[in-house]
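FORM 12-B: Structure-to-Sequence Request
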């Protein structure tokens, strides 16, 4: 389970709405290998007014109504944290009009430099190893920063450039 308080890399399946369903009149977007498809999005039960996030998608099939895709979600400044887990639905919008649905299959938190944050395993605390049993088992958990920086302006540039994290093996979120 990941709380979207900063940028998240997601992988899943996108389903584009037809024009009859209120989707894009021109049909599914055509991916451009120099630029990613960018839009806004939200996670129900939030709405575009209280839970809007930026979204950049790439690696999806041209002209396909349903296709695997990967992307990055960046919460709008001032929006509260949202829970993003495999199986949740992200509503893709252009303005406030829904144009697609992304079913999330994998979630990865991103550090400010765009690299994936690997979930820290619970490890024995160095100063509690000797007296650990009496003081709660001697287990220390890693914690995330309380207020990660707002990185909306750099989200699309991270996807347009080659980064060492592009070669990192996927690490599904622990649910």
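FORM 12-B RESPONSE
SEQUENCE OUT:
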């Amino acid at each position: 389970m990941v709380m979207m308080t900063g940028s998240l890399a997601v992988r899943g399946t996108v389903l584009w709405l037809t024009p009859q369903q209120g989707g894009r009149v021109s049909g599914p977007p055509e991916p451009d290998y120099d630029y990613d498809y960018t839009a806004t999005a939200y996670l129900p039960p939030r709405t575009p007014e209280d839970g809007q996030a930026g979204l950049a998608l790439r690696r999806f099939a041209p002209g396909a109504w349903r296709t695997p895709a990967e992307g990055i979600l960046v919460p709008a400044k001032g929006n509260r944290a949202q829970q993003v887990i495999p199986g949740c639905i992200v509503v893709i919008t252009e303005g406030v009009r829904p144009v697609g649905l992304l079913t999330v299959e994998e979630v990865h938190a991103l550090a400010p430099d765009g690299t994936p944050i690997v979930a820290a395993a619970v490890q024995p605390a160095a100063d509690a190893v000797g007296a650990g049993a009496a003081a709660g088992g001697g287990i220390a958990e890693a914690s995330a920063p309380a207020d990660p920086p707002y990185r909306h302006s750099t989200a699309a540039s991270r996807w347009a450039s080659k980064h060492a994290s592009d070669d990192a093996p996927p690490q599904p979120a622990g649910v």
